[in-house]
Write a structure and sequence with these properties.
seven-stranded antiparallel beta sheet, PH-domain like, 11 helices, single chain, alpha/beta
Amino acid sequence: MAARILVASDGSPASLGALRMARAFSDRKAGTRVLVVSALEPLAVYDAGLGTTVGIDVEVASRDSRMEHVEKQVRDIAGPNHDWKVEVVYGVPPRAIARHALEWKADWIFLGLGKHGPVERIFGSETALHVIRASHVPVFAAAPELKELPRRALVAVDFSPFSEAAMKLAPELLAPGGELHLVHVITGIERDTPIAERWLLECRTKALEGLERLADEVTARAGAPAVKLQVRTGEPGDEIMALGGEIGADLVTAGSHGRSFIGRLFLGSVSTRLLRKTQASMLVVPPATVAAELVPMAEAAAGGIPREEWSGWLTEFTNRNFARATALEVDDADIGVQEIERDYLLLGAAYDHRDDRINIMLGEPGSSDVHLTQTVEHPEAVEILAEESGKDAVLRVGNRRGQTLLKFVTA
Protein backbone atom coordinates (compact mmCIF):
# COMPACT_ATOMS: atom_id res chain seq x y z
CA MET A 1 0.00 0.00 0.00
CA ALA A 2 1.37 3.44 -0.97
CA ALA A 3 2.52 5.64 1.89
CA ARG A 4 0.96 9.03 2.56
CA ILE A 5 3.33 11.70 3.90
CA LEU A 6 2.19 15.04 5.27
CA VAL A 7 5.06 17.54 5.22
CA ALA A 8 4.67 20.62 7.41
CA SER A 9 6.46 23.70 6.09
CA ASP A 10 6.47 27.31 7.26
CA GLY A 11 8.29 28.38 4.11
CA SER A 12 11.59 28.89 5.94
CA PRO A 13 14.94 27.10 5.40
CA ALA A 14 14.20 25.05 8.53
CA SER A 15 11.65 23.08 6.48
CA LEU A 16 14.05 22.08 3.71
CA GLY A 17 15.33 18.92 5.40
CA ALA A 18 11.79 17.57 5.76
CA LEU A 19 10.99 18.32 2.12
CA ARG A 20 14.21 16.67 0.91
CA MET A 21 13.41 13.60 2.99
CA ALA A 22 9.92 13.39 1.50
CA ARG A 23 11.48 13.50 -1.98
CA ALA A 24 14.04 10.80 -1.08
CA PHE A 25 11.37 8.61 0.52
CA SER A 26 8.99 8.94 -2.44
CA ASP A 27 11.79 8.25 -4.93
CA ARG A 28 12.52 4.99 -3.15
CA LYS A 29 8.93 3.90 -2.51
CA ALA A 30 6.80 4.12 -5.67
CA GLY A 31 3.30 5.48 -5.29
CA THR A 32 4.05 7.61 -2.23
CA ARG A 33 1.64 10.53 -1.96
CA VAL A 34 2.88 13.81 -0.49
CA LEU A 35 0.77 16.64 0.92
CA VAL A 36 2.61 19.81 2.00
CA VAL A 37 0.71 21.80 4.62
CA SER A 38 1.60 25.24 5.94
CA ALA A 39 -0.31 26.44 9.01
CA LEU A 40 -0.95 30.15 9.57
CA GLU A 41 -2.32 31.58 12.78
CA PRO A 42 -5.21 33.87 11.74
CA LEU A 43 -4.75 37.57 12.38
CA ALA A 44 -7.13 39.44 14.64
CA VAL A 45 -9.90 41.06 12.54
CA TYR A 46 -11.68 44.04 14.07
CA ASP A 47 -14.00 46.91 13.21
CA ALA A 48 -12.11 50.23 13.00
CA GLY A 49 -15.33 52.18 13.66
CA LEU A 50 -15.56 53.52 10.11
CA GLY A 51 -17.70 50.78 8.68
CA THR A 52 -14.68 48.90 7.35
CA THR A 53 -12.88 45.84 8.62
CA VAL A 54 -9.16 46.02 9.23
CA GLY A 55 -7.02 42.92 8.85
CA ILE A 56 -8.59 41.00 5.96
CA ASP A 57 -6.28 42.40 3.27
CA VAL A 58 -3.26 41.75 5.46
CA GLU A 59 -4.37 38.19 6.13
CA VAL A 60 -4.95 37.45 2.45
CA ALA A 61 -1.55 38.91 1.57
CA SER A 62 0.05 36.80 4.31
CA ARG A 63 -1.61 33.65 2.99
CA ASP A 64 -0.60 34.38 -0.60
CA SER A 65 2.99 35.10 0.46
CA ARG A 66 3.18 31.86 2.45
CA MET A 67 1.76 29.86 -0.46
CA GLU A 68 4.29 31.43 -2.83
CA HIS A 69 7.24 30.58 -0.56
CA VAL A 70 6.13 27.01 0.06
CA GLU A 71 5.31 26.31 -3.59
CA LYS A 72 8.78 27.55 -4.57
CA GLN A 73 10.35 25.21 -2.00
CA VAL A 74 8.37 22.30 -3.42
CA ARG A 75 9.31 23.11 -7.03
CA ASP A 76 12.99 23.43 -6.10
CA ILE A 77 13.05 20.07 -4.33
CA ALA A 78 10.39 17.91 -6.05
CA GLY A 79 10.92 19.36 -9.53
CA PRO A 80 8.68 21.46 -11.78
CA ASN A 81 6.54 18.47 -12.77
CA HIS A 82 5.84 17.26 -9.24
CA ASP A 83 2.44 15.89 -8.24
CA TRP A 84 2.63 17.05 -4.61
CA LYS A 85 -0.34 18.96 -3.27
CA VAL A 86 0.26 22.22 -1.33
CA GLU A 87 -2.23 23.74 1.11
CA VAL A 88 -2.18 26.71 3.47
CA VAL A 89 -4.50 26.25 6.45
CA TYR A 90 -5.40 28.44 9.41
CA GLY A 91 -4.91 27.50 13.04
CA VAL A 92 -2.32 27.06 15.77
CA PRO A 93 0.37 25.19 13.77
CA PRO A 94 0.90 22.04 15.90
CA ARG A 95 -2.81 21.30 16.28
CA ALA A 96 -3.63 22.24 12.69
CA ILE A 97 -0.88 19.91 11.41
CA ALA A 98 -1.97 16.98 13.57
CA ARG A 99 -5.64 17.49 12.70
CA HIS A 100 -4.89 17.70 8.98
CA ALA A 101 -2.83 14.50 9.17
CA LEU A 102 -5.75 12.73 10.81
CA GLU A 103 -8.26 13.99 8.24
CA TRP A 104 -6.00 13.12 5.30
CA LYS A 105 -5.19 9.67 6.79
CA ALA A 106 -1.44 10.34 6.67
CA ASP A 107 0.99 7.54 7.55
CA TRP A 108 3.80 9.96 8.45
CA ILE A 109 4.34 13.58 9.43
CA PHE A 110 7.62 15.13 8.27
CA LEU A 111 8.58 18.54 9.62
CA GLY A 112 11.66 20.68 10.10
CA LEU A 113 13.70 20.69 13.28
CA GLY A 114 15.14 24.18 13.72
CA LYS A 115 18.34 25.14 15.46
CA HIS A 116 18.37 25.08 19.24
CA GLY A 117 18.46 28.78 20.07
CA PRO A 118 15.54 30.35 22.00
CA VAL A 119 14.08 32.01 18.89
CA GLU A 120 14.57 29.12 16.47
CA ARG A 121 12.78 26.74 18.85
CA ILE A 122 9.47 28.47 18.11
CA PHE A 123 9.40 26.75 14.70
CA GLY A 124 11.85 24.01 15.63
CA SER A 125 11.93 21.55 18.50
CA GLU A 126 9.01 23.08 20.41
CA THR A 127 6.66 22.95 17.41
CA ALA A 128 7.82 19.39 16.76
CA LEU A 129 7.21 18.55 20.42
CA HIS A 130 3.62 19.80 20.29
CA VAL A 131 2.94 18.00 17.01
CA ILE A 132 4.24 14.73 18.48
CA ARG A 133 2.00 15.12 21.51
CA ALA A 134 -1.08 15.43 19.32
CA SER A 135 -0.12 13.05 16.50
CA HIS A 136 -1.35 9.51 16.04
CA VAL A 137 1.28 8.73 13.37
CA PRO A 138 5.11 8.72 13.39
CA VAL A 139 6.69 12.18 13.33
CA PHE A 140 10.03 12.67 11.58
CA ALA A 141 11.73 15.93 12.62
CA ALA A 142 14.43 16.59 10.02
CA ALA A 143 17.52 18.69 10.62
CA PRO A 144 17.56 21.56 8.08
CA GLU A 145 20.92 20.48 6.61
CA LEU A 146 19.70 16.92 5.88
CA LYS A 147 20.09 16.25 2.14
CA GLU A 148 19.67 12.49 1.81
CA LEU A 149 18.32 9.48 3.66
CA PRO A 150 20.08 8.93 7.00
CA ARG A 151 22.84 6.34 7.11
CA ARG A 152 23.17 5.71 10.86
CA ALA A 153 20.13 5.49 13.09
CA LEU A 154 20.42 5.29 16.85
CA VAL A 155 17.38 3.74 18.55
CA ALA A 156 16.85 4.29 22.27
CA VAL A 157 15.42 1.01 23.57
CA ASP A 158 13.73 0.70 26.96
CA PHE A 159 11.96 -2.54 25.97
CA SER A 160 8.55 -0.90 26.04
CA PRO A 161 6.16 -1.50 23.12
CA PHE A 162 6.74 2.14 22.16
CA SER A 163 10.51 1.87 21.65
CA GLU A 164 10.13 -1.48 19.89
CA ALA A 165 7.68 0.10 17.45
CA ALA A 166 10.25 2.84 16.79
CA MET A 167 12.96 0.24 16.18
CA LYS A 168 10.83 -1.55 13.59
CA LEU A 169 10.00 1.65 11.72
CA ALA A 170 13.44 3.31 11.68
CA PRO A 171 14.86 1.12 8.86
CA GLU A 172 12.25 2.56 6.48
CA LEU A 173 14.05 5.90 6.68
CA LEU A 174 17.59 4.54 6.28
CA ALA A 175 19.60 4.66 3.09
CA PRO A 176 20.58 1.29 1.54
CA GLY A 177 23.59 -0.10 3.38
CA GLY A 178 22.76 1.92 6.50
CA GLU A 179 23.37 0.95 10.12
CA LEU A 180 20.90 0.56 12.97
CA HIS A 181 22.37 1.00 16.46
CA LEU A 182 20.23 -0.27 19.34
CA VAL A 183 21.16 1.12 22.76
CA HIS A 184 19.74 0.45 26.20
CA VAL A 185 20.80 2.69 29.08
CA ILE A 186 20.79 1.29 32.61
CA THR A 187 20.11 4.03 35.12
CA GLY A 188 19.61 4.40 38.86
CA ILE A 189 22.27 1.90 39.97
CA GLU A 190 25.07 3.10 42.25
CA ARG A 191 28.27 1.08 41.95
CA ASP A 192 29.69 1.66 45.42
CA THR A 193 29.08 -1.85 46.75
CA PRO A 194 29.80 -5.41 45.58
CA ILE A 195 26.06 -6.11 45.58
CA ALA A 196 25.43 -3.21 43.23
CA GLU A 197 28.24 -4.39 40.93
CA ARG A 198 26.70 -7.88 40.70
CA TRP A 199 23.27 -6.37 40.10
CA LEU A 200 24.67 -4.16 37.34
CA LEU A 201 26.32 -7.17 35.68
CA GLU A 202 23.01 -9.06 35.72
CA CYS A 203 21.18 -6.08 34.28
CA ARG A 204 23.73 -5.70 31.49
CA THR A 205 23.47 -9.40 30.62
CA LYS A 206 19.66 -9.32 30.48
CA ALA A 207 19.64 -6.06 28.51
CA LEU A 208 22.06 -7.47 25.94
CA GLU A 209 19.92 -10.60 25.57
CA GLY A 210 16.88 -8.39 24.99
CA LEU A 211 18.72 -6.32 22.38
CA GLU A 212 19.87 -9.49 20.58
CA ARG A 213 16.26 -10.66 20.39
CA LEU A 214 15.21 -7.36 18.86
CA ALA A 215 18.14 -7.41 16.45
CA ASP A 216 17.02 -10.83 15.21
CA GLU A 217 13.59 -9.36 14.41
CA VAL A 218 15.19 -6.62 12.32
CA THR A 219 17.68 -8.78 10.42
CA ALA A 220 14.99 -11.33 9.53
CA ARG A 221 13.54 -8.88 7.02
CA ALA A 222 14.71 -8.59 3.44
CA GLY A 223 17.06 -5.69 2.86
CA ALA A 224 17.60 -5.16 6.59
CA PRO A 225 20.37 -2.81 7.71
CA ALA A 226 23.38 -3.92 9.73
CA VAL A 227 22.50 -3.90 13.44
CA LYS A 228 24.88 -3.02 16.28
CA LEU A 229 24.14 -3.25 20.00
CA GLN A 230 25.24 -1.26 23.04
CA VAL A 231 24.38 -1.29 26.73
CA ARG A 232 25.45 1.77 28.70
CA THR A 233 24.96 3.10 32.23
CA GLY A 234 24.13 6.62 33.31
CA GLU A 235 21.51 9.27 32.60
CA PRO A 236 19.63 8.09 29.49
CA GLY A 237 19.45 11.43 27.69
CA ASP A 238 23.14 12.17 28.21
CA GLU A 239 24.27 8.69 27.21
CA ILE A 240 22.14 8.57 24.06
CA MET A 241 23.36 11.97 22.91
CA ALA A 242 26.97 11.02 23.67
CA LEU A 243 26.70 7.76 21.72
CA GLY A 244 25.04 9.58 18.85
CA GLY A 245 28.07 11.83 18.61
CA GLU A 246 30.50 8.91 18.84
CA ILE A 247 28.94 6.96 15.96
CA GLY A 248 27.98 9.98 13.87
CA ALA A 249 24.26 9.21 14.03
CA ASP A 250 22.17 11.32 11.67
CA LEU A 251 18.90 9.90 13.01
CA VAL A 252 17.87 9.35 16.63
CA THR A 253 14.71 7.34 17.26
CA ALA A 254 12.55 6.93 20.34
CA GLY A 255 9.04 5.87 21.30
CA SER A 256 6.37 8.21 22.61
CA HIS A 257 4.92 7.04 25.92
CA GLY A 258 1.21 7.26 26.51
CA ARG A 259 -1.55 5.28 24.79
CA SER A 260 -4.13 8.06 24.83
CA PHE A 261 -4.26 11.76 24.07
CA ILE A 262 -3.93 12.52 27.77
CA GLY A 263 -0.84 10.34 28.00
CA ARG A 264 0.75 12.01 24.99
CA LEU A 265 0.35 15.44 26.60
CA PHE A 266 3.22 14.38 28.84
CA LEU A 267 5.80 13.05 26.40
CA GLY A 268 8.54 10.98 28.02
CA SER A 269 11.29 13.14 29.49
CA VAL A 270 14.05 11.34 27.55
CA SER A 271 12.27 11.86 24.21
CA THR A 272 11.66 15.51 25.06
CA ARG A 273 15.28 16.12 26.01
CA LEU A 274 16.59 14.41 22.90
CA LEU A 275 14.26 16.42 20.70
CA ARG A 276 15.55 19.66 22.17
CA LYS A 277 19.25 18.86 22.40
CA THR A 278 20.27 16.43 19.68
CA GLN A 279 21.86 17.83 16.53
CA ALA A 280 20.62 14.86 14.50
CA SER A 281 17.20 14.38 12.93
CA MET A 282 14.72 12.57 15.14
CA LEU A 283 11.91 10.06 14.66
CA VAL A 284 9.31 9.67 17.41
CA VAL A 285 6.78 6.88 17.03
CA PRO A 286 3.52 7.01 19.01
CA PRO A 287 1.73 3.81 19.94
CA ALA A 288 -0.99 2.53 17.64
CA THR A 289 -4.28 4.19 18.48
CA VAL A 290 -7.78 4.60 17.16
CA ALA A 291 -9.25 7.79 15.78
CA ALA A 292 -11.80 7.95 18.63
CA GLU A 293 -8.96 8.68 21.07
CA LEU A 294 -8.17 11.85 19.13
CA VAL A 295 -11.58 13.41 19.74
CA PRO A 296 -10.23 15.59 22.61
CA MET A 297 -7.52 16.90 20.26
CA ALA A 298 -10.13 17.86 17.66
CA GLU A 299 -12.19 19.56 20.35
CA ALA A 300 -9.11 21.48 21.47
CA ALA A 301 -8.69 22.94 18.01
CA ALA A 302 -12.33 24.00 18.03
CA GLY A 303 -12.01 25.69 21.42
CA GLY A 304 -13.19 22.97 23.84
CA ILE A 305 -15.81 24.17 26.37
CA PRO A 306 -17.78 27.23 25.14
CA ARG A 307 -16.50 30.45 26.73
CA GLU A 308 -19.85 31.33 28.30
CA GLU A 309 -19.73 28.05 30.24
CA TRP A 310 -16.16 28.38 31.59
CA SER A 311 -17.15 29.75 35.00
CA GLY A 312 -19.63 26.98 35.71
CA TRP A 313 -17.35 24.22 34.45
CA LEU A 314 -14.37 25.44 36.49
CA THR A 315 -16.49 25.72 39.65
CA GLU A 316 -17.67 22.13 39.22
CA PHE A 317 -14.10 21.06 38.40
CA THR A 318 -12.88 22.64 41.66
CA ASN A 319 -15.60 20.98 43.72
CA ARG A 320 -14.83 17.54 42.24
CA ASN A 321 -11.07 17.79 42.66
CA PHE A 322 -10.48 19.99 45.70
CA ALA A 323 -7.23 19.11 47.52
CA ARG A 324 -6.07 16.59 44.90
CA ALA A 325 -2.31 16.56 44.24
CA THR A 326 -1.25 18.16 40.98
CA ALA A 327 1.61 18.81 38.57
CA LEU A 328 1.50 22.14 36.74
CA GLU A 329 3.17 22.47 33.33
CA VAL A 330 3.40 25.54 31.10
CA ASP A 331 4.21 25.20 27.39
CA ASP A 332 5.36 28.59 26.12
CA ALA A 333 6.60 29.47 22.63
CA ASP A 334 9.64 31.36 23.98
CA ILE A 335 10.78 29.28 26.95
CA GLY A 336 9.55 25.83 25.93
CA VAL A 337 7.99 23.36 28.37
CA GLN A 338 8.42 24.10 32.07
CA GLU A 339 7.10 22.14 35.06
CA ILE A 340 6.15 24.83 37.59
CA GLU A 341 5.26 22.60 40.52
CA ARG A 342 4.55 19.05 41.54
CA ASP A 343 2.51 17.74 44.50
CA TYR A 344 0.77 21.03 45.34
CA LEU A 345 -2.95 20.61 46.10
CA LEU A 346 -5.72 22.14 44.00
CA LEU A 347 -7.57 24.86 45.90
CA GLY A 348 -9.48 26.40 43.05
CA ALA A 349 -9.78 27.27 39.36
CA ALA A 350 -11.86 30.23 38.19
CA TYR A 351 -12.48 32.42 35.17
CA ASP A 352 -12.37 36.21 35.68
CA HIS A 353 -14.42 37.49 32.75
CA ARG A 354 -13.73 41.15 33.56
CA ASP A 355 -9.95 40.81 33.14
CA ASP A 356 -10.28 37.84 30.75
CA ARG A 357 -8.03 35.49 32.65
CA ILE A 358 -8.14 32.11 34.38
CA ASN A 359 -6.59 31.71 37.82
CA ILE A 360 -5.45 28.33 39.14
CA MET A 361 -4.82 28.38 42.90
CA LEU A 362 -2.65 25.77 44.58
CA GLY A 363 -1.44 25.11 48.13
CA GLU A 364 1.13 22.99 49.91
CA PRO A 365 0.03 19.73 51.56
CA GLY A 366 -1.07 20.28 55.15
CA SER A 367 -2.05 23.91 54.54
CA SER A 368 -5.24 25.56 53.35
CA ASP A 369 -3.41 28.74 52.28
CA VAL A 370 -2.84 29.63 48.66
CA HIS A 371 0.88 29.36 47.94
CA LEU A 372 0.84 29.56 44.15
CA THR A 373 -1.53 31.19 41.70
CA GLN A 374 -1.00 30.49 38.01
CA THR A 375 -2.71 33.09 35.83
CA VAL A 376 -3.44 32.51 32.15
CA GLU A 377 -4.11 35.80 30.39
CA HIS A 378 -6.61 35.94 27.52
CA PRO A 379 -7.39 32.21 27.38
CA GLU A 380 -8.74 30.84 24.13
CA ALA A 381 -9.60 27.23 25.00
CA VAL A 382 -10.53 25.29 28.13
CA GLU A 383 -10.74 21.51 28.27
CA ILE A 384 -11.23 19.00 31.05
CA LEU A 385 -9.88 15.60 30.01
CA ALA A 386 -10.90 12.46 31.87
CA GLU A 387 -9.48 9.00 32.45
CA GLU A 388 -11.38 5.94 31.21
CA SER A 389 -12.88 5.65 34.69
CA GLY A 390 -14.42 9.11 34.28
CA LYS A 391 -12.17 10.73 36.89
CA ASP A 392 -10.69 14.08 35.86
CA ALA A 393 -7.10 13.74 34.65
CA VAL A 394 -6.04 17.06 33.08
CA LEU A 395 -7.23 20.65 32.96
CA ARG A 396 -5.93 22.30 29.80
CA VAL A 397 -6.04 26.07 29.26
CA GLY A 398 -4.79 27.27 25.86
CA ASN A 399 -3.91 30.74 24.65
CA ARG A 400 -1.97 32.21 21.73
CA ARG A 401 1.40 31.65 23.43
CA GLY A 402 0.85 27.97 24.19
CA GLN A 403 -0.96 26.06 26.90
CA THR A 404 -1.11 25.46 30.66
CA LEU A 405 -1.68 21.88 31.81
CA LEU A 406 -2.82 20.94 35.31
CA LYS A 407 -2.36 17.20 35.72
CA PHE A 408 -3.51 15.18 38.71
CA VAL A 409 -0.84 12.95 40.23
CA THR A 410 -0.51 10.46 43.04
CA ALA A 411 0.75 12.30 46.09
